[in-house]
Amino acid sequence: MRIGVVAVQGDVREHLRALERLEVEAVPVRRPAELEGLAGLILPGGESTAIWRLLKWSGLVEPIEELHRAGVPLFGTCAGMVLLAKEIVNWPERFFGFIDIAVERNASGRQVDSFETEVEVAGIGTVPAVFIRAPYIRRAGPGVEILAEHRGQPVMARQGTVLVASFHPELTDDLRVYELFLKMCG
Ligand code: GLN
Questions:
Q1: Is ligand 1 within 6 A of the CB of residue 105?
Q2: Which residues of the chain register pLDDT less than 50?
Q3: Which of 38, 66, 131, 186 has minimal Cβ neighbours within 10 Å of its Cβ?
Q4: Active-site option among 14, 78, 104, 185
């Protein structure tokens, strides 16, 4: 199984390393041709506005829209979640909008307020979760399944083939969140 990681900005290497530990083929995606044959695609944490600008510049926006239409699962972590959300309550634009949630950018606080905690993920159990200027889900549509919360705030969700998490599974050794995504990828 081949899984791509959008590799224009953000914590790409950590995602690739986690996927390699699970013995799937992990490929950094910088150009449209690198989307070919993927069973799933990860959009990493970083800076959503910068990632979006670079995706446009690289001609990747439409090919990723096509990938989504074709039913290939997508997993957005932190900035990746912002990119996949239908609405951003404190930002004037929206990006892909593939999952019916409204997110608030930087809701967990500033960079210096970054923290590691544990969250209870439905079907998995307790996993370590690192929050860095993380988005929180402020609204979720009826088709959205909330998979985890932190202090009453939804921080992980799924709708169809789209999975999102506010936190960074790539910054811990726990691979269960990836296993959940790989299951979606078949
Ligand atoms: N605050 C960033 C954004 O909205 C996300 C931060 C992160 O990915 N660690 O783009």
A1: yes
A2: none
A3: 186
A4: 78
- Looking at the chain, how many residues does it have? 186
Q: Number of structural domains, the chain?
A: 1
Q: Is 46 in the pocket of ligand 1 (CB under 6 A)?
A: yes
The CATH number of whichever domain residue 58 belongs to comes to 3.40.50.880
CA distance 186 to 181: 9
Q: Which atom of ligand 1 is nearest to the CA of 105?
A: 4
Q: Is 12 in the pocket of ligand 1 (CB under 6 A)?
A: no
What's the mean pLDDT when you consider all of the chain?
Answer: 97
